[in-house]
Amino acid sequence: MKVDSMDNLQLYYATNRRHIGNDRWNPERYGTDFSTDGLENLRFGRVELEVDPKELSRFIKARLRHGSGDGEGLANYLGNVAGDRRKIAVQAFEEHLEPTLSDVNQPATAVWGSAEMFDELREAMLVSTDVLAFVHGFNVNWEQAVGTALALQAMLNTDTGKTHSRTLVVLFTWPSDGLALPWVSYKSDRADALASGGALGRGILKFRDYLARLRREQKEACNRKVHLLCHSMGAYALECAVAKMQQFSNSRTMPRLFENVFLCAADSDDTALESAQPLGRLHELTRLVTVYHNRYDQALAISESTKGNPDRLGSLGLARPTLVHHKIEQVDCSESAPGPIGHSYYLSGCAIQDIRESLLGTRLSAPSQYRVSGASPNTWVLRARKRR
Fold first, then answer.
1. Is residue 1 part of a domain?
2. Is residue 186 within 8 Å of residue 382, measured between CB atoms?
3. How far apart are CA 306 and CA 187, in angstroms?
4. Of 85, 296, 347, 359, whose CB is crowded by the most CB atoms within 10 A?
């Protein structure tokens, strides 16, 4: 089993967190509050992390009860490494903008960090690379966000014996507190996710405008795919991002920018994807929406019982599977989610394998090697294959 680049891992990111250190373009790290330039202000950049290749391989080759690969353990390891300033380098793409002008009124000489990052991603995609944007959830600090995104990238690029393009993960990290205080942190993070939805929506709109510019300039098409994965409260941030995009869309429908949107352990209402609900138009942005849920998810059980929230989308799945758009499907991971909490299962075992299968080539209403049909045409149950 092979893994891409194991000594130095690279990750692209966008964030509305406040930078820590004197140099905003070469920060020490990012903090738990918003950028001093505003809630929707975004920095785009790169992280490089020096890791032990033996440790990386150990987690990726791990045999679990429900499939191969301990992505949760890998995320913890990489998050700890990211906390060692000797092993991490953070560099933001510099920008030269007129601070008193809005985005649309910037002069032609303006330098955008987003455009620089998109240019680098496009070069990689021209070679044969897909891109997956990742939005983390509740109670995640900067180091944990970096560790999780890099673990996701490593797990997606594990050699499965099939020919497929590499996947680059782009982290969108918002100021989640990273504090395990049951009442205070959750309330604070939910308010921050609401505010950060505007920044996420702004980032997606920048991507839309970048694609429009490429078409105007008749640049070579890369013919690769862009995907989006939101975990836990990251799905709530997406709700707010979709609202912002609707506000700034000039046509009746929003542009299709993604091949797949994955909602993993989503901390959203179980009706969120129905018509006229916060994610009711999400299907316009993508070819397929896949909801992963686990009825034994302890983190979402706390969200339901102690925070007064309705049934969570990530717990029992769609409230009424037959009332959502035909491009929406759900996968029940209750029989295959590893760990006592069962909240970050999308990183490990047959769940990450199922996501990898979708990246190989999305098929509507088709089983992967782990899926069996559920009660409705758009529902599936994820089961690990028995070892021989």
1. no
2. no
3. 11
4. 347
* 388: in domain: no
Query: Is 289 within a domain?
Result: yes
DSSP strand pairing (88-92 vs 43-50): antiparallel
The domain in which residue 146 lies consists of 8-382
Extract the tokens encoding 253. Answer: 């429908």
- pTM of the model as a whole: 0.92
The SS3 call for residue 281 is coil
Whether 2 is covered by a domain: the verdict is no
Q: Which two tokens stand for residue 317?
A: 């799945």
pLDDT in tens, 106-146: 787 778 899 999 999 999 999 989 999 999 998 899 999 99
How many domains does the chain divide into?
1
Side-chain half-sphere of 287: how many Cα atoms within 13 Å?
13
For residue 134, how many other CB atoms are within 10 A of its CB? 24
**What is the DSSP code (8-state) at residue 268?**
S
DSSP 250-265: -SSS----EEEEEEES
The SS3 assignment for 12 reads strand
Structure confidence by residue, pLDDT tens digits, 292-327: 999 999 888 876 655 556 789 999 999 999 999 999
Contact, 294 vs 314, CB < 8 A? yes
What Å distances lie between residue 217 and 112, 188, 250, 328, 366, CA to CA? Answer: 18, 44, 21, 34, 38
Alpha-carbon distance of 369 to 315, in angstroms, equals: 23
